[in-house]
């Protein structure tokens, strides 16, 4: 048997037929049954247990059932006995088997602790982010410890275990013996231990019936008792109020077969109850749930406000106010007397607050109502009493009453209620829990009632509903997609891609694609489409988004997925993708670039491509060869200018090589202008003249060039000759 | 540090603060001492967001430049790569990581910060190289629009124009749209969007789409901007080619302003102290930051250069008069008051000295014959004179092998002012260029043709005169000292882009439909619905605020012209300027050139 905290559901496995006993015995003949009940005892789901031997059941913080098997496998089921996933606690556990297991909750999430057959502990602090930790060996441990518990201190998870009269503390690296302060030396061997919900308090029970209670840090003793019962208790629960709560009391609840004892540090000493049936204790933040075959009770300390009001013959302001209101309804003048009494002491605000507070702790709507009525009555006689507390209490109670209904069965107490809006970073937990139970309409109504923003409330619920909806196999894809879009529309905060992903997980690819159509964010659409192998659709979605990175991602994906031919064909139809891929090739695969241009007969670009290539050639033949290719392409592209220019360049290169050989000076790679200029500078006037004619250098430029070069050279004789050869086309200044 | 950002109508400090916050958050994620390995291109823009001191406060102890090989020794816990998402850079990072000594202890943790966006492509690339797992944090730093001044934002994306118009790679437009979304998140939804050009249309579409992607986040900020005007650079290819004639524009033309800093020849700035004359002339270039935080600069930056001299001499008189005051200070109170003003006066004096020196440097150039000839040709083209034949001056410049970029600017300018050149003229120029500067420039010429800067006249009709007349792009009676029209920024030519902005504000584009059709790309108008509570009720006399976004770059002269419009008394509109990159003709043409280095034989 296991029950989840915060009034959560109950899971149990028992022999067939179900419901007779809650012991964890398995009759080997019949298949055991795994059953999940709501806290009000309604059967939510059941299934025959087909897997291995179960050692322990537990619930995660998100209300999933953990089934820990003997071989260390942990299976996770949801509230409806639907299998979610499984994980293993490691090889060591597999070999040595699970002896005992505990499920615990810390700020990191839900954890699992295992004691193996080899008497070693293994821990996983958070099952959603599984990191197995094998604790160090306990020296000299020969038999299983009599009792052990998981503690969480300063964000470190440690194990406390008792062997006989010794206590050991196991942390990540070492094992140390500890002694609780103030522990009576004659206390005897430890039989049972319990840690409070918030890991602050620790209770130890020894075989002399002695109970020690102290801080979980083992630094301070809080109190001790003698139960005078030596029998080992069946269960023990330690209770410590949360920080800032009204109560300073700490208590320990010990259950034997037919007896329940409550002991605390208050003056009242201890209380004993008789148990009629086999019972199971569920520790809660503010009390203990007592579960038996026929009933489900909640044992808690009575809050101060309730005590004050309902104590017999109480004269507390709240009690008087309640009385005043009752008299007022009876139209009795006593109402005024009571009211006067409170007002004389100037305690009316306190009275109202007390009534409001006490209403919160009541489970009966009638009592809640009468307390609230009293508060509202008292408020009439006050100026400027801030209304928030009253309004919020009414709201909270309406929600709490709604979910406490036996058909819903989430008996949350007022202390459990979510923090007020605004200071809560997360949305309140009740709608998510309703969603887990597939109680979508109620969840939506609560969100609307609490005026939660759509993104926080309704959208999430609708998204969950849709994820559930896609699993309904009896409807066609069209119907489901239509139904979902009808309900969800453009509700802000809805992620259609998440729903689609779920549909895809259920094997409904077509439905997923239909749903993705409603998704406005391409960044979300594209990865899923790729996963579903709808790459071409993914490509057009990526292009629509304008996010080039997304386009690149799809393009490269396509490149690996398709053969070259169809890859190129796909790109042909998507110019944006094509030009991006060209960019990619320019940097990474120049040869592919050529193929791309070839494919669309882009001769101009092919020509440019060859020009590019020619400049990286290290030999002149290579250079000329590449230029020759460029020349051909430019002709094909009907770019006569470029073709002619390329032809000239080939001619020039060849000439330059001759010059270089003839004069043993570097000429290659100079521009025509510089070649001629250098020739003149070196006095090779004939050769210069030859180039001037061959390449049809305009007269004007040739004159400038020659005059400049001759002047630089200081060759005034040649200059004079030149000046007389023809009339200067650039004048004489 | 950032007072100049809050001086304008829109307080851009908020944007800078948002950027700083994001940076701090990331740095704090990597606990312990850090070294940053910089993609060198990012250091300039980052300097405008956060100085070294901020990095230091967050335990950044060392900075390196990203280059292949082994990372320098540094005893730090974290190595963070600040990079643009480019595959070339990923290869360098891979090399760095693979060469890291695995034996060293303690091990250094690696992280990547992608600027401005995380890229699946890059991560996939790193994964294929087997190093993706080495990075603990891989995050993005959405530095899209960087505040440069109180009314100026730039993405400093150098290759934006080239990518959009030559390579059909619209990545920078996606970043621009994202940047505008960030801006709207901080300054409210911009109710009206106007645009002209293909890229403008694309950006507007993406903005509308992105808004739909987050329907839940209804923006509840009162809109600061009334209008967004998106302009493609290719709608106005002409303006950047002309030589800017404002003070700031000329500084940029001559020395190049990089991320608000300019490097100047040191000679003019030698400290004039007696006794050590000429002993140690500074050899390092003088580096100055130019923004409106400097009072004098704010006053003269946008003036026509011909009007700067008189302001400087007036300032000089005021300052020396102020210093003279000390002789009149008699009482202790007067002296005290004088002394309290001293730091401000001294700052003003050194600012004046700096700008006098800069003005002298510029004057040397603007008074040169060549500058004058060049300008004359530009102005002839822009006013429509002899645009259809080979120009003598250009021919001579080629013959004398003037810098190629200068030639390209002039030829492109002529081509645009003639709606394309006659095939014969075009081929002549091209041949001249190839013969003089080398065949390898054939690819550059091809790029210019693809971008539309250089083209043959195909339609046989020259639209430019119609456009010029309708939009009044050429003003003969320009007043440089006390301008009454934006044409003062080019001493006669009114930048087309700014004229479009001006006409949009009044009387509206409907009046120039015909001309708009002649310019490339669609023009459009979109409205973004505001919740009723946020709709503006304009106070009487309150100016509208328009954000003009130049996709593909903007020049300082255009900025000056928009500032001039903001200041016009009856203008009714104030402008904030955003762009992909601050450009001038030279840097722009350079970005379009194909760098072809012949392999050595």
From TrEMBL, chain A:
Tell me one Pfam family matched here. Answer: Vps16_C
Q: Where in the cell is it found?
A: Lysosome membrane
Q: Where is this region: Disordered?
A: 1-29
Instruction: Give the family from UniProt.
Output: Belongs to the VPS16 family.
Q: Which residues form the Vps16 N-terminal domain?
A: 1-392
Q: How does it sit in the membrane?
A: Peripheral membrane protein
- Is Coiled coil tagged as a keyword? yes
Name listed for the protein in its UniProt record? Vacuolar protein sorting-associated protein 16 homolog
The upper taxonomy is:
Eukaryota, Metazoa, Chordata, Craniata, Vertebrata
One GO term in the molecular function aspect is: actin binding
> Which PANTHER family did the record assign?
VACUOLAR PROTEIN SORTING VPS16, VACUOLAR PROTEIN SORTING-ASSOCIATED PROTEIN 16 HOMOLOG
Ranges for domain Vps16 C-terminal come to 494-732
Presence of keyword Mitochondrion: no
* Signal peptide location: none
Coiled-coil stretches: 321-348
Query: Do you know which InterPro entries this protein is assigned to?
Result: VPS16 (IPR016534), Vps16_C (IPR006925), Vps16_C_sf (IPR038132), Vps16_N (IPR006926)
Q: Which of UniProt's keywords are assigned here? A: Coiled coil
Q: Name one GO biological process term.
A: intracellular protein transport
The record's Gene Ontology cellular component field reads: endosome membrane; HOPS complex; lysosomal membrane
Subunit (UniProt): Core component of at least two putative endosomal tethering complexes, the homotypic fusion and vacuole protein sorting (HOPS) complex and the class C core vacuole/endosome tethering (CORVET) complex. Their common core is composed of the class C Vps proteins VPS11, VPS16, VPS18 and VPS33A, which in HOPS further associates with VPS39 and VPS41 and in CORVET with VPS8 and TGFBRAP1. Interacts with RAB5C. Interacts with STX17, MON1B. Associates with adapter protein complex 3 (AP-3) and clathrin:AP-3 complexes.
From TrEMBL, chain B:
Keyword Transport in record = yes
Any one of the GO CC terms: early endosome
Q: Which Gene3D superfamilies match?
A: 1.25.40.850, 3.40.50.1910, 3.40.50.2060, Syntaxin Binding Protein 1, Chain A, domain 2 (3.90.830.10)
Q: Does the keyword Nucleotide-binding apply?
A: no
What's a single GO BP term from this record? protein transport
Highest taxon in the source lineage: Eukaryota
Which UniProt keywords are present, listed alphabetically?
Answer: Cytoplasmic vesicle, Endosome, Lysosome, Membrane, Protein transport, Transport
Q: Which family does it belong to?
A: Belongs to the STXBP/unc-18/SEC1 family.
Question: What this chain does, per the record?
Answer: Plays a role in vesicle-mediated protein trafficking to lysosomal compartments including the endocytic membrane transport and autophagic pathways. Believed to act as a core component of the putative HOPS and CORVET endosomal tethering complexes which are proposed to be involved in the Rab5-to-Rab7 endosome conversion probably implicating MON1A/B, and via binding SNAREs and SNARE complexes to mediate tethering and docking events during SNARE-mediated membrane fusion.
Write down what this protein is called.
Vacuolar protein sorting-associated protein 33A
Provide the taxonomic classification.
Eukaryota, Metazoa, Chordata, Craniata, Vertebrata
């Amino acid at each position: 048997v296991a029950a989840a905290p915060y009034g959560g559901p109950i899971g149990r496995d028992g022999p067939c037929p179900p419901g007779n006993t809650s012991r964890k015995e398995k009759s080997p003949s019949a298949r055991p049954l795994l059953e999940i009940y709501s806290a009000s005892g309604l059967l939510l789901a059941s299934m025959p247990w087909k897997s291995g031997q179960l050692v322990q059941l537990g619930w995660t913080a998100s209300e999933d059932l953990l089934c820990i098997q003997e071989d260390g496998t942990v299976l996770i089921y949801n509230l409806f006995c639907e299998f979610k996933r499984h994980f293993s606690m490691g090889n060591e556990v597999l070999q040595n088997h699970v002896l005992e297991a505990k499920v615990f909750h810390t700020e990191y999430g839900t954890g699992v602790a295992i004691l193996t057959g080899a008497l070693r502990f293994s821990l996983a602090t958070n099952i959603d982010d599984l990191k197995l930790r094998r604790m160090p060996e306990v020296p000299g441990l020969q038999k299983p410890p009599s009792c052990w518990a998981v503690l969480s201190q300063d964000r470190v998870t440690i194990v406390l275990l008792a062997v006989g009269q010794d206590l050991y503390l196991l942390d990540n690296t070492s094992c140390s013996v500890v002694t609780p302060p103030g522990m009576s030396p004659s206390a005897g061997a430890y039989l049972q231990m319990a840690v409070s919900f918030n890991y602050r308090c620790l209770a130890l029970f020894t075989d002399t019936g002695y109970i020690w209670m102290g801080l979980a840090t083992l630094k301070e003793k809080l109190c001790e008792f003698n139960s005078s019962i030596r029998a080992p208790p069946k269960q023990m629960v330690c209770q410590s109020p949360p920080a800032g709560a009204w109560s300073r009391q700490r208590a320990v609840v010990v259950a034997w077969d037919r007896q329940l004892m409550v002991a605390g540090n208050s003056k009242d000493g201890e209380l004993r109850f008789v148990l009629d049936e086999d019972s199971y204790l569920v520790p809660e933040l503010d009390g203990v749930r007592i579960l038996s075959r026929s009933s489900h009770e909640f044992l808690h300390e009575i809050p101060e406000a309730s005590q004050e009001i309902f104590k017999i013959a109480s004269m507390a302001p709240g009690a008087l106010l309640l009385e005043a209101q009752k008299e007022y309804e009876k139209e009795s003048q006593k109402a005024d007397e009571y009211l006067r009494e409170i007002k004389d002491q100037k305690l009316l605000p306190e009275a109202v607050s007390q009534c409001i507070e006490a209403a919160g702790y009541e489970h009966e709507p009638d009592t809640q109502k009468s307390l609230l009525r009293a508060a509202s009555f008292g408020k009439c006689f006050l100026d400027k009493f801030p209304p928030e507390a009253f309004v919020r209490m009414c709201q909270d109670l309406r929600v709490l009453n709604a979910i406490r209904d036996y058909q819903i069965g989430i008996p949350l107490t007022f202390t459990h209620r979510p923090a007020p809006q605004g200071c809560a970073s997360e949305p309140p937990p009740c709608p998510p829990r309703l969603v887990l139970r597939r109680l979508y309409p109620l969840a939506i109504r609560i969100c609307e009632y609490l005026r939660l923003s759509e993104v926080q409330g309704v959208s999430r619920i609708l998204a969950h509903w849709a994820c559930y909806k896609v699993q309904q196999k009896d409807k066609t894809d069209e119907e489901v997609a239509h139904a979902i879009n009808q309900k969800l529309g453009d509700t802000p905060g809805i992620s259609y891609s998440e729903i689609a992903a779920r549909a895809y997980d259920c094997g409904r690819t077509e439905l997923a694609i239909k749903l993705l159509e409603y998704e406005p964010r391409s960044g979300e659409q594209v990865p899923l489409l790729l996963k579903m192998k709808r790459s071409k659709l993914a490509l057009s979605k990526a292009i629509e988004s304008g996010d080039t990175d997304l386009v690149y991602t799809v393009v490269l994906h396509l490149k690996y997925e398709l053969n070259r031919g169809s890859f190129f064909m796909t790109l042909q139809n998507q110019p944006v993708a094509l030009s991006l891929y060209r960019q990619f090739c320019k940097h990474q695969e120049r040869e592919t670039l050529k193929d791309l241009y070839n494919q669309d007969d882009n001769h101009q670009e092919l020509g440019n491509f060859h020009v590019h290539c020619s400049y990286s050639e290290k030999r002149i033949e290579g250079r000329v060869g590449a230029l020759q290719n460029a020349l051909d392409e430019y002709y094909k592209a009907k770019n006569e200018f470029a073709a002619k220019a390329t032809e000239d360049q080939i001619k020039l290169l060849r000439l330059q090589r001759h010059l270089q050989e003839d004069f043993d000076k570097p000429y290659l790679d100079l521009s025509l202008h510089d070649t001629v200029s250098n020739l003149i500078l070196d006095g090779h006037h004939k050769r210069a003249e030859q180039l001037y004619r061959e390449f049809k250098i305009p007269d004007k430029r040739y004159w400038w060039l020659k005059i400049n070069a001759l002047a630089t050279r200081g060759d005034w004789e040649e200059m004079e000759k030149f000046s007389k050869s023809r009339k200067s086309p650039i004048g004489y200044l | 540090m950032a007072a100049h950002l809050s001086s304008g109508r829109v307080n851009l400090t908020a944007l800078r603060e948002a950027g700083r916050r994001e940076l701090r958050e990331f740095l704090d994620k990597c606990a312990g001492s850090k070294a940053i390995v910089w993609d060198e291109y990012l250091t300039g823009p980052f300097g405008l967001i956060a100085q070294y001191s901020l990095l230091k406060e967050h335990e950044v102890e060392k900075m390196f430049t990203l280059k292949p090989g082994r990372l320098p020794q540094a005893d730090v816990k974290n190595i963070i790569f600040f990079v643009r998402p480019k595959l070339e850079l990923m290869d360098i990072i891979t090399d760095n990581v693979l060469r890291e000594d695995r034996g060293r202890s303690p091990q250094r943790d690696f992280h990547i910060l992608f600027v401005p966006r995380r890229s699946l492509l890059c991560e996939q690339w790193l994964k294929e190289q087997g190093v993706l797992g080495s990075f603990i944090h891989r995050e993005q730093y959405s530095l899209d629009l960087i505040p440069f001044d109180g009314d100026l934002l730039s993405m400093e994306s150098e290759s934006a124009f080239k990518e959009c118009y030559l390579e059909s790679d619209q990545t920078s437009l996606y970043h621009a749209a994202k940047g505008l979304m960030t801006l709207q998140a901080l300054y409210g939804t911009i109710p009206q969007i106007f645009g002209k050009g293909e890229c403008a249309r694309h950006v507007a579409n993406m903005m509308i789409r992105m808004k739909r992607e987050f329907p839940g986040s209804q923006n509840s900020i009162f809109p600061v901007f009334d209008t967004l005007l998106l302009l493609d650079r290719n709608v106005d290819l002409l303006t950047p080619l002309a030589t800017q004639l404002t003070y700031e524009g000329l500084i940029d033309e001559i020395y190049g302003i990089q991320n608000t800093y300019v490097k100047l020849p040191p000679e003019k700035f030698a400290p004039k102290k007696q006794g050590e004359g000429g002993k140690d002339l500074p050899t390092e270039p003088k580096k100055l930051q130019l923004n409106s935080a400097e009072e004098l600069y704010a006053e003269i930056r946008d003036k026509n250069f011909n009007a700067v001299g008189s302001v400087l001499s007036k300032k000089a008189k005021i300052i020396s008069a102020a210093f003279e005051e000390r002789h009149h200070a008699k009482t202790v109170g007067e002296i005290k008051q004088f002394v309290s003003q001293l730091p401000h006066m001294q700052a003003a004096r050194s600012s004046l000295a700096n700008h006098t020196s800069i003005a002298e440097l510029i004057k040397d150039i603007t008074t040169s014959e060549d500058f004058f000839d060049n300008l004359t040709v530009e102005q002839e083209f822009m006013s429509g004179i002899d645009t259809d034949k080979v120009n003598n001056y250009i021919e001579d410049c080629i013959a004398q092998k003037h810098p190629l970029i200068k030639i390209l600017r002039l030829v492109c300018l002529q081509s645009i002012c003639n709606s394309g050149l006659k095939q014969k003229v075009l081929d002549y120029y091209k041949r001249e260029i190839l013969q003089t500067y080398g065949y390898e420039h054939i690819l550059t010429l091809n790029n210019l043709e693809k971008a539309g800067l250089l083209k043959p006249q195909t339609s046989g009709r020259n639209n430019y005169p119609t456009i010029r007349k309708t939009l009044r792009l050429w003003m003969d009676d320009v007043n440089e000292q006390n301008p009454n029209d934006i044409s003062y920024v080019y001493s006669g030519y009114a930048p087309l882009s700014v004229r479009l902005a001006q006409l949009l504000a009044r009387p509206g584009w409907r009046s120039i439909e015909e001309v708009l059709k002649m310019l490339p790309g669609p023009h459009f108008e979109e409205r973004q619905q505001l919740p009723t509570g946020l709709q503006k009720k304009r106070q009487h006399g309150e100016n509208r605020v328009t954000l003009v976004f130049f996709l593909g770059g903007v020049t300082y002269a255009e900025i000056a012209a928009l500032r001039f419009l903001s200041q016009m008394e009856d203008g009714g509109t104030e402008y904030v300027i955003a762009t992909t990159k601050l450009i001038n003709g030279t840097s722009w043409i350079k970005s379009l050139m194909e760098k072809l280095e012949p392999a050595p034989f």
